[in-house]
Amino acid sequence: MTEISYRLPQRRVLSTALPGPRSQELAARRKAAVAAGVGSTAPVYAADADGGVIVDVDGNSLIDLAAGIAVTNVGASHPKVVAAVRDQIERFAHTCFMVTPYEAYIQVCEELSALTPGDHEKRSVLFNSGAEAVENAIKVARLATGRTAVVAFDHAYHGRTNLTMALTAKSMPYKSHFGPFAPEVYRMPMSYPFRDGGLDGVAAAREAISRIEKQIGADSVAAIIIEPIQGEGGFIVPAAGFLPTLVEWARANGVVFIADEVQTGFARTGEWFACDHEGVVPDIITMAKGIAGGMPLSAITGRADLLDAVHAGGLGGTYGGNPVACAAALAAIEAIRDHDLPARAKHIGEVAMARFTALAQEIPAIGDVRGRGAMLALEFVRPGTTEPDAALTAAIAKRCLEQGVITLTCGTFGNVIRLLPPLVISDELLDEALTVLCTAIGDLAN
Ligand SMILES: Cc1ncc(COP(=O)(O)O)c(CNCCCC(=O)O)c1O
What we know:
Keywords: Aminotransferase, Pyridoxal phosphate, Transferase. This is (S)-3-amino-2-methylpropionate transaminase. With 446 residues, the protein is of the alpha/beta class. Helices cover 37% and strands 16% of the residues. Strand 14 and strand 15 form a beta hairpin. Helix 3 (79-89) packs antiparallel against helix 10 (323-338) and helix 11 packs parallel to helix 13 (427-445). The radius of gyration is 21 Å and the shape is globular. It starts with 20 loop residues before the first helix and ends with a helix. The structure holds the ligand Cc1ncc(COP(=O)(O)O)c(CNCCCC(=O)O)c1O.
C-alpha cells in the first residue's frame, strides 16, 4: 500500500477570527453577485486544500470533516489527480464524446464494469452530476421495461432537477415552491431502525412491497431507486435484510433495482460500494462525488441488456464524461487502490465509532450513532425521547466551525451531524477533529 503524503501541513491553525478579513470582503462581493439561494456551510473562503485540511484566504487552516459532501475521498489535490488533469488539459479540454470520442471515457467505463458489484456483463454512460446520473438511470429503466412508475423511499435524496426532486423526500430546502414535479413517483416507508422501533429489515421490506403491490401494482413499476445508506436524509443504514429483500422482489417482478451510490460510493463506507456490505447486486448503480477526486463526473453502470436497449443517441449530453474529468477519475481510482482507501475508511469508522459510542453513554441527547466506514452520523434528540433537536445540532456544528473544524449536518429533521472526512486524513488530524467535535457535544448537550 502506498503511504499517503501531503503537500500542505496537516494542522489546525486559526490566525484570525472566522471569517477573517479577506473572507468578509468576499462575502460582501458575493452578496452583490451570487444568488441568495445558494447557501454555504462555512463562512470562510477556500484558498488551498490538501489531505484533511482546507486553508482559507486569511491563512487559517481548518480540519475538513465534510470532503465537499463526500467528494474528495482522495483529498482535494491528490498528486496523481493533479498530474492527470494537467496532462489532459494541456492536450484538450473537450471534443464531446458524442462528436469525437476519446479513450479515457472507455477506460473509465471499463473500470466501472470491474469495480461495481456483480460479475455480469455491464455497460456504462458518463455524465456530470449525480442528479443527471439518476435521471438517466430512470430513463433506461422506463424504456427497458416499458413501464412508468418509480418507487423511492422516505428520507431519500436524489438531486435537484425536476425528476430527482420528485424522488427526493424533504421539501425544504430542496423542493419547496419548485413544483409541479414529475409524475409517476411513489414513496414507500424506509427501514430507519432508530425511528421505526428497530423493525426487522425483512419485515420492513415486506411492508414496503405490500404497499407497492396494493397502491401501484408490480407490473406498473419500472424501477425501485434507493440509497444503500441514505445520505442527506440522515445517514440512515437500513436494517439487515431490507435491501436484499427489495432486490429479490424486484428481480421476481421485472422491476429494475437502482442503487444510488452517489454519496456512498468509491470506498466511502469501507467497501468500494455500499451494496457490497450485504452482497447486493443492483441492476443499475448511479455514481458521482468520490469518482473523480473532485472533478465533476457521474456515471450509471448497469446490466448490458438494460443499457443497450436504448436506441442510438438516446443517452448522452454535451459534457458527459468530459476528458479532463475522466483523466481525474482514472487517477482517483488508482489512488483509492494505491492507498487501499476502503480499508482506510473502515479504520476511520472504527476510530470514530469508538469515540461516539463512548460519548453516547454519557450524553442522552445523542439518540443514535450509526453509519459504515467513514460515513458516520450522530442523531440528536431531546433526552429520553426521539424528538429531533435541530437547534442543538446546529449549535454543535457552529462550535466546531469556531474551533476550526468543518462539519456538515443533515437529516429530514435537521438533527444529524455527519462525519465525512477525506479518506486520506491522517490519524492525528482525525483524532484532533474528533476531540473538537466530542468536546463541543459535551459542552453544549449537557
Ligand atoms: C445519494 C445522492 N444522489 C444524488 C445526488 C445529487 O448529486 P449532484 O451531483 O448534487 O446532482 C446526491 C447529492 N448529495 C448532496 C447534495 C447537496 C445539495 O445539493 O445540497 C446524493 O447524495
